[in-house]
User: Fold this.
Amino acid sequence: MTSRRGEDRIYATMQAFPLSSAPNFRALSYSWGTGERTHRVLLPEGKFPVTPSLYAALQHVRRITGGPIVLWIDQICINQDNEAEKTAQVKLMGEIYTRAKQVIAWLGPADGTSDSFMELLANFGRDAANLHLDSYLFGGEERRQLLLDILDAKTTGGGSNPTENRIRDLFDQALSVFVELARAIPAWYKRPWFSRVWVIQEFALGSDTIFMCGDKKLVAQAAMLATHVLNIAKPRIISSLLAGGLPAEIHWQNRAIVDRLRSLNPTLPHFAIRTGYQGLGHRIHEGHTLQQLLKKVFVGNDIHATRREDRIFGLLGLAVDAERLGIRPDYTTTEVAPLLYRVALSIINDSKNLDIWSYARPGTDIPNLPSWVPDWRPSLESRFSHLDQDQPIACRAFSASRRSLMDTGMPPGPDGILRLRGVVVDVVEDIGGTLSLRDPRVIPCLLHGIRHLTLLSKAKGRSIYTSRQRIEEACWRIRIGNLENSGLEIQRRATTSTARSYWELLQHWEGCERWDGPPASVKCYVESMNKMQGMRPYLTREGYVGMGPARLSPGDVIVVLIGASVPFAIRPLERSARVGQFALLGEVYCDGIMDGELMAGDRPFETIDIA
Assistant:
């Protein structure tokens, strides 16, 4: 690509090289926009149509580089109208971005806050690098906990260690700008580039990657360090915004800011995945499996693909198990359901567990998709069962089946049916309201609903629990899935500190004349409830109480299947032609059986068909 003085038009030539002997080139990562090619790049052979977003990117790249530049651009270098060529070229995308001299991530034109925000990220990233914060942030759980201790002044050095003081000063600066930039931060991450699935691979694999927004540039590593600093500062600023004793008007103004901040994930899958591949923190990741990538990208993130099959194809270049799973890009077929079915079945057979079932959701827009197959839609809700799936089986919070590895793989069944072995726990008898923390004023009603169901369970007189004390603990353990936060969003089994937070919350509710929300002192319990958002309590006929998916109804069945860490809810399909088959509703927390208690008893194993 070249420029001519005084002209806005883009001039370029196209040349083909074997990838192994290509000259030094830069690769462009950008959002296509509407897809309509209304602008023209001038080639010796004629005018080449491109989208407005690409044309704007080329103008800014040309202005900043100031001379001829060799670029690889998918919109130009791949014939977008030839599905066979797209299939062949997409298989090379990972190697192309790995070999690129530099990857330019074009975010779009500047706006009123983007320049100042990029300068902020550059400054924080530089200061964080000088303090070697990468060794804390990416050096393992012990180093991350040490960083938290430094911020809380719990280290042996107290306030006398100069380096620790500088670290605390840096985070104090982050706190001071967080509220000021509450609007700028979401605006930055809502740019279309961050919502495109293909850019995740492009961003992760480039060894030298820069952001470009308007005429500003920002080195990717600096942006990543800075956003991790902001991410750690976020809960502290939220706590200060929601501190007790504020006037009601200020409290609700601050809560609006907090809602925006809580919805923001500034580390994003882009940074999390790149961190591993580029060895930030001096540790090279062995790679991500396809399931790990799908979880990181689509759970809680508004990531989109123009074509639904690109939800899979856009990540294959990063998946270390893509060849083993036998999943390859193929644009010559238009059916998406068979692709998603093959992906889910291959992952189950390869992993020998049912973890992937936790991502299946109702209401898919893909015809003929079995209930147990995830469609990997944008913004999948996070669930309590997702939190430790990257951990070895022996280190997980729950092991409901006690046999998390299935003995044999699952052969494809007719019409997408899986035939599994497991134990039927019980049938749902009653349900409560769906958990939503958007309005904190409803929290007491949600807690009261759990207490009501546990009292009904107790009245049944069944021996579900091992002790009377454990029966009394059920009311506070169930609503949080028996898990509490333990620094940097790490989860562990709930402890007595969470119990105290629960009882204090109830006492505050019962003792106040007007409930405007929970006090800051009980945040431990309220924050632990977040992982159960969108779930509802239930009671079974025998007295089991737990939390299940929002669409759970009386008559649904709770089961523990071999290969599953958690129980699942299923629904009989008697009203269809498939008598004896079930549809998957989703994972459940069932108090008293999460550690395999039923599997060690005398319950018979049954064959269960999931369609």
In short: The two ends are 54 Å apart (CA to CA). Residues 114-278 form one domain. The first helix runs from residue 52 to 65.
